[in-house]
Write a structure and sequence with these properties.
2 copies of one chain form a homodimer. In chain A, the strands form 4 sheets. Chain A has a 6-stranded mixed beta sheet, with helices on both faces. With 526 residues, chain A is an alpha/beta fold. Helices cover 43% and strands 12% of the residues of chain A. The first copy, chain A, starts with 9 loop residues before the first helix and ends with a helix.
Chain lengths: 526, 526
C-alpha cells in the first residue's frame, strides 16, 4: 500500500485537466430530472445520497473512481479497521468503527481483543443504566435519578450533545426518554452555574468525560460540580460517574460511583460511539436506543467498504469534496439539515471535519503544497434561509452545500395550513433551495439575478431515528477519513491545539512576556 | 457625496501596493507588547477594540484613513441617520440606529417624526410589560403570565434570541428575570411541538413577529400555536401579541391582545433594537433592561461618527476587514466570544453580516468585479478551542479571528482550583490564543510547528451587561454598514432569498417540472 501526496497521483492530474461541469446547464430541463434519478446512491437504513446538483458528470466520476483506486482508499480503510497504526503522529490504532461492529479481522492490542473490550463496556453501561432506570441504583435518599449531566468539552461534548438533541423529541413521543440530559462544557463559570440552576442536583447523575483525565476545563467543571453537590449536603461519589481511559486518574477512583472505559484508539471527535456517547445516551434513552444508533452506524460503515464509488456514498462524497476543494478552489462547505432536532449537528461536524483535516503536513510530518480541510459551518433549514443563504445565493464566493432532509418529522404532531402540512412545507423548501442554487434565475434587474451553478448534495432519510442518525454520523466520519487518506494527512491527531494550552498555563503561572503579558493585563488576569 | 466602486478609489490602489505586514514578526518581543498597548481604540461603555495582532502597521493605517476619507464613510453614515434613501434596492430609509438615539437631524417620513414613533412604541411596550409583571394584564383565569415565547424567523429570531441568552444568567443574579423566554422559528413542526412541550401555555404570552405579516414559517407556526392554545381550552386572542408594521394583516387585528409596531425602515437583521427585540426583552427582563441595551448601543453609534479611524472602532474594524478580504484574500471570519452567554451571538452575526454583504451587484444594481462579504462562523471559547481551532492554527487557509473577552463573568459564582478561578482560566485562554495565532512556534517536528502570522482582534469589556451587549451589537451593525459603503453595495436588502420562496410555493402547488419535480419526489412531497 502506498501513501502518496495528492499531487503525485496521475488521476489527480487528470482531474485538473478534465472539463469543468456547468451545474446550471446540466440541471436544466429534462436532463436535470434525469440526473436527480440517476445520480443517487443508496445508503444503509433506506437512505440515499443524491449528488445530481454537484459539479460532476460521468467523465469526472470515472476519474474519481480512478482516484479512489489509485489512492487505495478502501485498502487504507481496511488497514484502519484491521488495526494498523493509522494515527502516525501519535502512533496509535484508529478503532472507533470497532465500537459499532466487526468490519474485518479481530484486532488484538494491549493484550486484549478490542471489539470484545468495547462491547464489554457497552454491556456494563447498559446494566448500569437499566439499574438506574429500575431504581436499583438511586441517590442517597433511595430516590430515582431523573437527570444526567455530561461534563466534557470538544469530543466529550459536541457529538453526544448533537446526538441527544437529535433524538430527544423522538424519544418523548416513543416513550423512551428515561432521563433528561444536560451538558456543561465551557470553563466559563457561568456555563456550569446556569446549567446547575436548571437541575435538581439531588436527582442528577453527572458524567465526567476525559480520556486522559487531565483536560483543564473538564477537571475544573468537575470540581465546580463537586462543590455544588457538597453544598447541597450530598456525597459527590454517589452522584458522579466517569468515562475515561483505564490508565487515567479518573479510573478506579473512589470519587466516582462507577467508571466506563475507552482507550487511546478512539479520538475525541470520533468518540460518540464509545462510552463518551454510550454512557449518557444509554442513561437518557435506554441502552436499546444507543445500540440502535450503533447498528445504524455499522450498516453505513459496511457500505464504506465498497470499491465502486457509486455504491459507497461516504467515499463518493469525500472525493467530490476533494475535487471541489483542490481543483475547483472552494474553501468552505455549509451543512444544512432540514430538521430542528439536528440543530447542533453542524457544530459536531465542524469539530469532526476541521479538527481532523485542518492540517498542513502529511502523515509523515512533511509540509504539503496543496490545500486540505475546508471550513464547515451550518444551521438548520429553514432557519438558515432567513439568515446567511443570501450570501450562498448571491455572494461572490461559491460555497458547496450539504443538505440533509427527512420525509417525515419525528413527533406525531403537525398542522394543515393552506392545504399542506408544516413537514410538506419544510420538504418543499429543501427541494426548492437545491434547484434555486443549481439553476438560478435570469432577471434584467441584476439585483434580482441568480447566477446559479452553486453545487449541492442531499442525504434523504425517511425519518430521523436512532438508526438513521447513527448512519448519518458514520457517513460523515467516513467521509472525513477518506478525505484524509486522499490528502495523505493524519486525520486522527490534533497538535494544533497544544500551543494555546501551553501559553494559557504560562499566563496562569504569570510566566509571560511581550504581547502575552500585555494581553493578559488587558484581560485583567494580572 | 460620491458612491464609487471599491476598485476606483485611489486609496484602494495604494492599499494593494503597500508592503504586507508580517504579524509574526511585528508581534515578537517588546514590539509586540508595545503594539498591544498602542493599537487599542476606546469604545463606549468602558470597552476597547484592540487590533495589535491584525496585519496592519502605521503605514497601512494611514492608507485606511485615506480610504475612509475618500470613500466618505462618515458622510454616508450621516446621510443614513439623517434619513436619505440608503436602501436603494427597496427605495427605503435605514433607521435602526434611530431606535436608540437621535444622531442627527429629525427624520420625518410617512408624515411623522420617526424617532418619536420608535420611542412611542418603546413606551407602549414598556407599559404593557409593566402591566403584565404587575398582574394587571393576566390570563383568562386572572393569573400572572410567567413565560414569553417569540414566534419569528431570521431577524425575528436570531438577534432577540442571542440577546436574551446573553442576559438570562445576568438577569437571574440581578433579580430582573421577570419572565422566561422561549423561541419558535423553524417551519419544521417538531420545533413548535418541542418548544410547546416545555411551556405552560396557560401562563404564556406568544409574540408573533413578522414585519410584512406574510412570512410563511411564522404564519404557519402562529397557526400551530393558536391550535395548541385552543386545544388547551383557552382563547388565543388573550395569549398572543404581534410585532409588525402598521400596514400588515397582523396590525389592528382582534386576534391579538395588543400589537407593537416597526416599519419598513428597519431591516429584519437590524431589528433587535426595534419592537422585534423590544417586546420580548421588555417582557423578559423589564423595560429598564431593554432601555439599557439601547443606551449602550447609542453610545457606540455616537463613536461611529468619528472621522479619525483611531477613534472609531467600528469603522477601523470594517476597514481592516475590507483589507483582509480584498487585498489579502481571506474569505472567512471567525467570531469567538469567550462567554457561554454569547453562545448564539455568532449565529446572529452570521445573518447580520452574510445577509447584508453577500452581494454581487453594487448599490445601483451593476455587477461588480471584486469580492464582498466573507463567511462568518463561530462558537464560544473555550469550546471552540477543543473543536475547530486545529484548522485555524494549522490549516492551509488563513482565517481572521474576532475575539470578544470579558474581565468578569456575569453570575456571582466561581471556584478556585490550582490557585486560579474559572474566569481567570477563561481570560488566560483568550490571551494565550491571540498570541499563539500571531506568534506561532517553531519545532523541528513539523507536525508540532505553528506558522503563526494568523491575524486577530479583540473587543474587551468589563462584564457582559445590557449596556456592553448593546454596544457590541451596535459595533457589528456599524462595521457591516461601513463595509457595505466600502464595497459600494446595498447592505439593507436581501433579494437572494426570493427565488427559494417562489420555487417552494411552486412545489407546494405541484406546479413544477424537471429537477424540481424529481427532488420533490425524492422528499416525498408528491
Amino acid at each position: 500500500m502506498k501513501w502518496e501526496n495528492l499531487t503525485l497521483l496521475d488521476s489527480y492530474k487528470k482531474l485538473q485537466e478534465a472539463a469543468v461541469v456547468d451545474v446550471k446547464a446540466v440541471m436544466a430541463g429534462e436532463n436535470g430530472a434525469k440526473r436527480v434519478k440517476e445520480y443517487c446512491v443508496p445508503m444503509s437504513n433506506g437512505m440515499v445520497y443524491n449528488f445530481a446538483s454537484k459539479q460532476v458528470d460521468d467523465d469526472i466520476l470515472a476519474i474519481l473512481q480512478e482516484f479512489a483506486d489509485e489512492a487505495e482508499l478502501t485498502e487504507k480503510y481496511a488497514a484502519l479497521y484491521n488495526g494498523e497504526v493509522i494515527n502516525t503522529g501519535e502512533k496509535r490504532l484508529v478503532l472507533h468503527q470497532l465500537c459499532r461492529g466487526q468490519l474485518g479481522d479481530d484486532v488484538i492490542a494491549d493484550g486484549m481483543n478490542k471489539r470484545e473490550f468495547y462491547v464489554s463496556q457497552q454491556k456494563r453501561a447498559a446494566e448500569f443504566a437499566n439499574k438506574v432506570h429500575a431504581g436499583e441504583i438511586t441517590n442517597e435518599a433511595g430516590e430515582k435519578f431523573t437527570t444526567v449531566c455530561q461534563i466534557g468539552i470538544g469530543g466529550g461534548d459536541l457529538g453526544p450533545r448533537a446526538l441527544y438533541l437529535a433524538l430527544e423529541g423522538w424519544a418523548k413521543v416513543n416513550n423512551t426518554l428515561k432521563m433528561e440530559a444536560k451538558f456543561i462544557s465551557n470553563v466559563d463559570p457561568d456555563d456550569a452555574t446556569a446549567v446547575l440552576a436548571q437541575l435538581d442536583i439531588a436527582h442528577t447523575i453527572f458524567v465526567m468525560v476525559s480520556k486522559s483525565g487531565t483536560t483543564l476545563e473538564t477537571l475544573t467543571n468537575g470540581a465546580f460540580v463537586e462543590n455544588a453537590i457538597k453544598k447541597a449536603g450530598l456525597d459527590p461519589a454517589k452522584h458522579m460517574i466517569a468515562v475515561t481511559s483505564a490508565t487515567s486518574p479518573l479510573a478506579n477512583n473512589p470519587m466516582y460511583l462507577d467508571a466506563f472505559y475507552m482507550d487511546d484508539y478512539i479520538g475525541g471527535r470520533y468518540s460518540s460511539s464509545s462510552m463518551v456517547g454510550g454512557a449518557i445516551l444509554s442513561l437518557a434513552f435506554g441502552p436499546e436506543v444507543f445500540a440502535a444508533i450503533l447498528d445504524g452506524a455499522a450498516a453505513e460503515d459496511a457500505k464504506a467498504k465498497e470499491k465502486d464509488i457509486r455504491k459507497n456514498p461516504a467515499m463518493l462524497d469525500a472525493l467530490i469534496g476533494v475535487y471541489e476543494r483542490n481543483v475547483l478552489g472552494y474553501g468552505m462547505t455549509a451543512v444544512l439539515p432540514y430538521s430542528q432536532a439536528m440543530s447542533r449537528f453542524p457544530a459536531h461536524l465542524q469539530q469532526l471535519d476541521m479538527e481532523s483535516n485542518g492540517k498542513s503536513v502529511n502523515r509523515f510530518g512533511e509540509p504539503i503544497d496543496y490545500v486540505t480541510g475546508p471550513v464547515i459551518f451550518g444551521e438548520p433549514g429553514t432557519n438558515g434561509q432567513h439568515s446567511f443563504y443570501q450570501l450562498l445565493h448571491q455572494g461572490t464566493d461559491v460555497i458547496p452545500l450539504q443538505f440533509i432532509g427527512f420525509k417525515n418529522n419525528q413527533m406525531d404532531n403537525d398542522v394543515l395550513i393552506e392545504d399542506t402540512t408544516s413537514q410538506q412545507k419544510l420538504s418543499a423548501n429543501v427541494a426548492a433551495q437545491i434547484v434555486a442554487f443549481a439553476c438560478g434565475k435570469d432577471d434584467d434587474n441584476k439585483n434580482k439575478y441568480f447566477a446559479g451553478g452553486r453545487p449541492s448534495s442531499i442525504i434523504v432519510a425517511d425519518k430521523l431515528t436512532p438508526e438513521t442518525l447513527g448512519a448519518i454520523l458514520a457517513h460523515f466520519e467516513n467521509k472525513v477519513m477518506f478525505q484524509g487518506f486522499a490528502w495523505n494527512i493524519n486525520s486522527f491527531d490534533q497538535e494544533g491545539v497544544q500551543l494555546g494550552k501551553i501559553l494559557a498555563k504560562a499566563v496562569l503561572a504569570q510566566n509571560t512576556d511581550g504581547a502575552l503579558t500585555e494581553y493578559s493585563k488587558l484581560l485583567s488576569i494580572f
